[in-house]
Amino acid sequence: MAADTLTAVLVMPRGFAELTQALRHLQAQTRREAIEVVLVHTPAHAGEIDRSAFAMFRRFVPVSVARIPTVASAFVAALDEATSDVVAQVEDHVLLDPEWAAVVMSAHEQPSAAVAPRMANANPATAISWANFLASFSEAAAVRPVGPVDSGPGHNTSYKRAVLLQYREELLAFYQSERTFHYRLRQDGHVILHEPRALLAHLNISVHRKAVRHGFLGGVLFGAYRARHMPVVEKAARTVLAPLVPPLRLWRTLRMLFGSAGLTTSRMPATAWALLPVLLISHAAGEAVGYWHLVGDIEAQYEHFELHRLECLRHDEHSLMTGQQEA
Predict the structure, then answer these.
(1) How many angstroms separate the Cα of 59 from the Cα of each of 55, 97, 99, 100, 196?
(2) What is the pLDDT of residues 200-232, one digit of tens each?
(3) What string of DSSP letters covers 155-176?
(4) Where are the chain's structural domains?
(5) Averaged pLDDT for residues 1-10
(6) Cα angle value 245/313/114 (rounded, 5°)
(7) What percent of the chain has pLDDT over 90?
């Protein structure tokens, strides 16, 4: 299947300035003439959009929505306007390799529903950033050959638009907890392809208390969506076994990373290895809580970390998103 065009979904819940660095890396794509940019924004910030910044792309489509409660709601709104063969969200806290779009489109010529990229740490100065990165993306950080994988990194995996449209009625819930969507895709016979040449760097949470809360609420969200059709007996069994999950995940992470010749951890503070188990325990506890729906309004609580990433970075790292040094 030919995949000659790509829709990059940008979500702008606040000011246009917070898209600065992500947009610069999108503008630097070698195949930018094949990219359609769909920018989902609210009316409050519409006047800040610099349309000239999108002149080099194939097409620019601003989509105004009354509010952006979740990334999933913005992604679904963008999908309804997308016209490309491939659709991918480009987070405001992601820095793309110049060949990212070209590699993604090439990979989508294979009979796969989704393409999972390889990821790096874009703010590697602190131990908590590394711990958050490894807790969230250890599978995507490890260097593996091209081939099928169980799932890809949330909000950073690209999809064939035709496949997304097959799940349009359920996509709002699926994209909210993207790993459950990948489980469903594989259950329905689709392939998720890992392409290590599709490179991007991710800005991770570097404020300690926010990283712990992110782990817990991420676990709650995953558990809640995973348990939607889960029998009570299975939920009870998974709750009882929850203490085994952190050591198992830690072992898998260590096995993947130390078996990955291309992963560079030389800049990683040694204390990251002490913080990583804390985040894994936080996530496992949250997942067990999520099975029983004990936390209300979980989507809104978790989306703070995705929609307001600037507040989750140390002040000296804000320029990595905005391009401007703060006093």
Answers:
(1) 8, 21, 19, 18, 27
(2) 999 999 999 999 999 999 999 999 999 999 999
(3) TT-EEEHHHHHHTGGGHHHHHH
(4) 6-124+140-202, 208-322
(5) 90
(6) 55
(7) 92
pTM for the predicted model, two decimal places:
0.95
Q: Say if CB 202 and CB 121 are below 8 A apart.
A: yes
- Sign (positive/negative) of CA torsion 14, 299, 161, 134? positive
In a 3-state reduction of DSSP, which class is residue 249? Answer: helix
Residues in the chain: 327
Contact 295, 220 (CB under 8 A): yes
| The amino acid at 86 | V
> Do 240 and 131 touch, CB atoms closer than 8 A?
no
Cα–Cα distance for residue pair 280/132, rounded to 1 Å: 9
CATH node for 6-124+140-202: 3.90.550.10
Q: Which two tokens stand for residue 57?
A: 């792309």
| DSSP β-bridge partners for residue 280 | none
Alpha helices in 203-271 (DSSP H): 208-226, 232-241, 245-258
Strand partners, 37: 8, 60
Find where tokens 């800005």 sit: 203
Please report where in the chains the tokens 């359920």 appear, as a residue.
Answer: 170
Parallel, antiparallel or unpaired: strands 147-148 and 86-89: unpaired
